[in-house]
Design goal:
The chain has 222 residues and is α+β, with helices and mostly antiparallel strands. 57% of the residues lie in helices and 8% in strands. It starts with 5 loop residues before the first strand and ends with a helix. The model has no long low-confidence stretch (mean pLDDT 96).
Length: 222
């Protein structure tokens, strides 16, 4: 029997958090090997573990997978969260890429120079309420089903719910005009695997703070 997937990253959200969410939603237990120093990262590089010299990296099924989207695709396919055919997969990919665009903007916010932060926040709010969330609300309204694609749980639903939690941390009012999205979040959050992941003490990571940001800066030298 294969061991648990092992996740190599620092002890924070970053580009690993969506991978944690997806594994947790699939009911897969995983181990984490946290990078704590630049030397930890250098060791992985020197040992030939990192194809492109960077993390996230996940050890799973005898592979050392790099590139977060490749990792997410593999997990989704392995655990049947990737649609029933190539058309459904295309929709799931399209929706997930839109979510990733907004997620990347939110992820970059703590790195923003103080004098640009307000403008960046305004842009995130505008994109959330005028571009991304209306698009997903429209999808749910168009077919009246419980999930975004094929009336079955997919990685797109998981990514969207994760994203909604991040948006709520920024400004809860941004969700106000999207009743179908809020209902989706409630449904997904009540799935036993996700409910467990949302509990205190799980492997879900908190919002990045100044201390955690400084830790990341030291490890990744940015």
């Amino acid at each position: 029997m294969a061991g648990k997937p092992r996740l190599h990253y620092f002890n924070g959200r970053g580009r690993m958090e969506s991978i944690r969410w997806l594994l947790a939603a699939a009911g897969v237990e995983f181990e984490e090997k946290f990078l704590e120093t630049p030397e930890d990262l250098e060791k992985l590089r020197n040992d030939g573990y990192l194809m492109f010299q960077q993390v996230p990296m996940v050890e799973i099924d005898g592979m050392k997978l790099a590139q977060s989207r490749a990792i997410l695709n593999y997990i989704a396919a392995k655990y049947n969260l990737y649609g029933k055919d190539i058309k459904e997969r295309a929709l799931i990919d399209m929706y997930s890429e839109g979510m990733a665009d907004l997620n990347d903007m939110i992820m970059a916010l703590p790195l923003c120079p103080p004098d640009q932060k307000d403008a960046k926040m305004t842009q995130i709010k505008e994109r959330t309420t005028n571009r991304y969330f209306p698009a997903f609300e429209k999808v749910l309204k168009s077919h009246g089903q419980d999930y975004l694609v094929g009336n079955k749980l997919s990685r797109a639903d998981i990514h969207l719910v994760e994203l909604m939690y991040y948006v709520e941390e920024l400004d809860p009012s941004l969700l106000a005009n999207f009743p179908l999205l809020k209902a989706l979040r409630t449904r997904i959050s009540n799935l036993p695997t996700v409910k467990k992941f949302l509990q205190p003490g799980s492997q879900r990571k908190p919002p990045i703070d100044a201390k955690k940001l400084e830790e990341a800066r030291k490890i990744f030298k940015f």
